[in-house]
Write a structure and sequence with these properties.
Blueprint lengths: L5 E8 L7 E10 L2 E9 L9 H6 L5 H4 L5 H14 L6 E3 L6 H11 L8 E4 H8 L8 H7 L9 H19 L4 H7 L5 E2 L12
Parallel strand pairs: 1-4, 4-5
Antiparallel strand pairs: 1-2, 2-3, 5-6
Helix pairs in contact: 5-7
């Protein structure tokens, strides 16, 4: 990508299984600026939520999602049309290599869907390479560093913050394209069809 164009994505899950997506958020960034966004609650295939996650993390409950569409409908009727408005843009997620992209894989596996033909990169990797002296590269800590006020563990707000972090990284490196950031951070684009990283959510 020779521009600072990407779609930040984030998921919340109901429980430890990677197919249990219960919320998705996407924010499109064009030239490093927010263009448009999408968020949707998702009904997981099994309506079990880890109680501590409801109370301490995302605050999403069974009542919130029991009447919401399931992943295939959300992905096919909402997410892909949103993504396809700007074909070729990579997805971006914070710790996406280990979490968000494996949620997509897990949901696709569960519902016997094809993986999307999309590239992606990880803002956590970029942040570690850009600001190596920081004690923490968690999204919440990066948000504090850059004065971003947001509601953590809301999929839309996490996506937006993740996208802003990449803009800040580009400014730090003095570049204005995704390709240049990836090259300088000595990382690469991921693909859903390559061998994936092991996930904490693999059971």
């Amino acid at each position: 990508m020779n521009k600072l164009d990407y779609i930040a994505i984030d998921f919340e899950t109901a429980n430890q299984y990677r197919y249990s997506a219960c919320q998705i958020g996407l924010v499109r960034f064009i030239d490093g600026k927010e263009s448009d966004s999408l968020t949707q609650l998702i009904q997981p295939p099994v309506l079990y939520f880890v109680p501590e996650w409801i109370e301490e993390i995302h605050h999403i409950t069974v009542d919130d999602v029991k009447d919401k569409p399931k992943f295939p409908q959300v992905w096919n009727e909402m997410v892909m049309p949103f993504i396809n408005k700007s074909p070729g843009l990579p997805l971006l997620a914070h710790n996406g290599n280990l979490f968000d992209m494996n949620v997509i894989r897990g949901c696709c596996d569960y519902y016997n869907m094809k993986y999307p033909d999309l590239d992606y990169f990880d803002s956590l990797v970029i942040a570690k390479a850009t600001w190596p002296k920081l004690e923490s590269h968690k999204l919440t800590e990066l948000g504090k560093l850059f004065g971003i006020e947001y509601k953590a563990h809301d999929a839309l707000e996490d996506s937006r913050t993740c996208g802003i972090v990449i803009k800040k990284a580009a400014e730090t490196w003095g570049v204005n394209s995704v390709d240049e950031i990836i090259r300088l951070c000595k990382t690469k684009m991921g693909s859903f069809y390559e061998k994936k990283e092991p996930s904490l959510f693999d059971f």
